[in-house]
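Workshop exercise sheet. Pairs work together: one partner reads the sequence aloud, the other fills in the structure field after running the prediction. Swap roles for the next sheet.
Pair: D.N. / O.F.
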Amino acid sequence: MTKEQALYNYCVRLGDNALVQSYRLSEWCSNAPILEEDLALTNMALDMTGRAQLLLQYAGKVAGHGKTADDMAYRRAEREYRNDLISELPDADFAFTMVRQMLVSTFECFLYAALVSSSDKEIAAIAAKAVKEARYHMAHTSEWVIRLGDGTEESNRRAQSALNILWSYTGGLFETTDADALLLSEGMAADVSQIKTKWQENIEAILREAKLILPADDYQQTGGRQGLHTEYLGHMLTEMQYLHRTYPEAIW
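Structure field:
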């Protein structure tokens, strides 16, 4: 694997994570429990869309195949996506969304903070913007997880149920490939093994305040890095890619 191929794969992974999160968050538009939260989740989705655009556009540039961010987002097959499995799971309820986004955004806070020092100037510039957004996303969702966990019996039950399901997918956040090793040696990627300790400490602190029980570290669902996905991504792409596949020559 060349450095260019490794960088392409890395940018695609980060871009796909942002794209899929954006889709899931946007599903709450006009469906959130209160108007303020409707706006907050929609803005978070827009943050993710902007991040996905920058990363996928850069991936196309690195590959040198002339593909735009739209081509990368809407004209790939399911097995070509490299997002973490946790991001593609459908939202069971509001608690599920908050717990999932808290877990992912906490990870992204440390990830993009590390990538600000990347030797690749493009990644460093994207990370400088993304880390500010991730900090807000983490703060916002953490407050909700604490409110739900330390709320009523029903809100605690829903938050704990979401955590129990999602925890077995968190291992995918720290899954590594040959591309990671190559880019780490060049100072271009972040070392997720170092991030995991900080992530775990922060998550445990949030859960203690929320009066939620940390699930056991049993079997972890992985495979997103290799293009192996749950059944839900295919359904998502069917809807997301409909216009581009129906009218491939359209110019918006």
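Discussion prompt: The mean pLDDT is 94. What would you look at next?
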